[in-house]
Predict the 3D structure of the following.
Amino acid sequence: MQLVGSSLLLCEPSLKWSPDFAEIHCREQVAPPVTHPTVIQCQPWERVFETRCVCKLPNECSSSLDVCATDPKTQRSMWLTICKLHTLECRGRQYLLVGEENCRVRTLSERSCESCQLWENCDESTNTCICRETGQCSETGTSICVNVSGSPEAQTMTECEAGILRCNGDNVRVISIRPCLTQQISQISQ
C-alpha cells in the first residue's frame, strides 16, 4: 500500500485537522513493469561491448572453415578462416577469395582433441579429431556459398556442413563468405 497525501496531520487551534482527512488515503502500489535486460545477439565475428556489437579482432575467432584469400593491396594470398575474413571486413579490410592453388600447401596432421574443429568430434580412445557425421553439427558457424566437387550448382550451407564434406574428402570450394545469391547459382550453372 502507498500513502497518497500528507503523512503529517496537524490539529489547528480551531480544532480542525490539517490537511483535510478527505485528501489522504491509501492505494495499492503499482509495481513498475519488470524490464528484462535485452539480450544482444551479435554476428559470430562480433562481440558485445557495453550495449552494442563491435567487430572482434581476428585472433578472437573460434573454430571456422579455412579459405584461401588474397589481399588486393599487397597481392599476397594466405589461408584465413571465414570468421577472420568477416572480422577483417568488419574493420574495413577487403580480401578476395581465390583458389586453394594460390596459397601454400597445407600440411594436415592429426590433432589432439583440444583443437577439434566445428565439423570434428574427439575420438577419446586415440585422443584425435575425427570427422563428424552429416547432421551432427552442434555449432554451425555462418552460412556460406559453396560449390561441392564440381557440381554445376552453388549451394548455401553452414561452415560445419562444408567442413564435414571437406573432412570426408569432398572438394568444397567456397564461393562467398555469405549465403548464395540467385545470380551466383546461375553463374555456376552456365
Observations:
- The radius of gyration is 30 Å.
- The first helix runs from residue 82 to 90.
- The chain has two domains: 1-32, 46-176.
